[in-house]
Amino acid sequence: MKLHRRQFLNLSVAGCAALAWPALAAEWPSRPIRLIAGGAGSVTDIRARWLAERLGSALGQPVIVENNAAAGGNLAAEQVARAAPDGYTLLLTHQGIAAINPHLFARLGYDALADFVPVARFGIGQLALVVLAASPIRSVADLLARARARPGAMNYGSNGNGTPPHLAAEQLKRMTGIEAVHVPYKGGGALLTALLGSQVDWAIEGLTPLLPHAKSGALRALAVTGGRRVPDWPDVPTLAEAGVPGYEYIGWTGVSAPAGTPKPIVDRLNAEINRAATSDEGQRFFAKAGAEGGGLSPADFADFVRAEHTRFGRLIREAGLKAE
């Protein structure tokens, strides 16, 4: 069996770490921990900073958030993949890094499955299908009927090619057979400007940026993408309830470490992250964004990541998507 150079190095370092574990166990953590996340102000950054404060208190060492949002998180992932597997460099990962980008980009500086050990899923949230409040589209049935009556005449916006909102819309198109033109924007702010300015007919986006505009009456939420309704929008159905049986799409973030990180460190991190995420404070933190906390073991999170990797690979291939 042939091994990539980095995989060989990871295995070698892992073997050394296993031999040195008694010493590491007595010391870890003995210095600050780095948590590499997305760009300042992003969902991953906000979650990373919330977690860093609580994780630092639990571990007795500062957890310092470093932002690296370039290339959709690819450079952050590469940075962590190449770090020593000693528990002092962690990644605030998400479905883009772990499950989407590996199928969009021809070349990556990391192997999404081989170069990391999943530590804990930290935050799962829904997206929402929205239109401008003044739109004649008042339900998912309306949107589907109009799209089928004039195939390709409608357009929809996203916050970028290959992003979770784009793939959520592609999943909707493939499950319903509708045709619509994709209009990608550079980020969620530009997408909201276009949506509020009637430049696109509809969009799927995360709840955090949408909620204020929906509550103000500027946007109309037609459905949410998860398996159950959102408490802040009790009258907004899921897409499955609104006429697309079997539809479900969630966004998620989590924490990963370099492959070869000793299991006791991974287990300790998992316990502390899950404790913070499932606490009353954690539930309130996530609920503000229509999301939920953690709760998976490292093994269950690893299974989840592999399943997401497979699922998105299939969707991206079927849709013929590539990074721009």
Number of domain modules: 2
Q: How much beta, percentage-wise?
A: 15-25%
Q: Helical element count?
A: 12
Query: Would you report the number of β strands?
Result: 10
Specify the overall morphology: globular
Going by helix content, strand content and strand pairing, the class is alpha/beta
CATH class group of the largest domain: Alpha Beta
CATH architecture of the largest domain: 3-Layer(aba) Sandwich
**Which superfamily, in CATH terms, is the homologous superfamily of the largest domain?**
Bordetella uptake gene, domain 1
Largest sheet, in brief, is: 10 strands, mixed
The secondary-structure element order is HHEHEHEHEHEHEHEHEEHHEH
Named CATH topology of the largest domain? D-Maltodextrin-Binding Protein, domain 2
Helix content: 40-55%
**What is the averaged pLDDT score?**
90
Radius of gyration (CA) equals: 21 Å
Intertermini distance: 34 Å
Low-confidence stretches: none
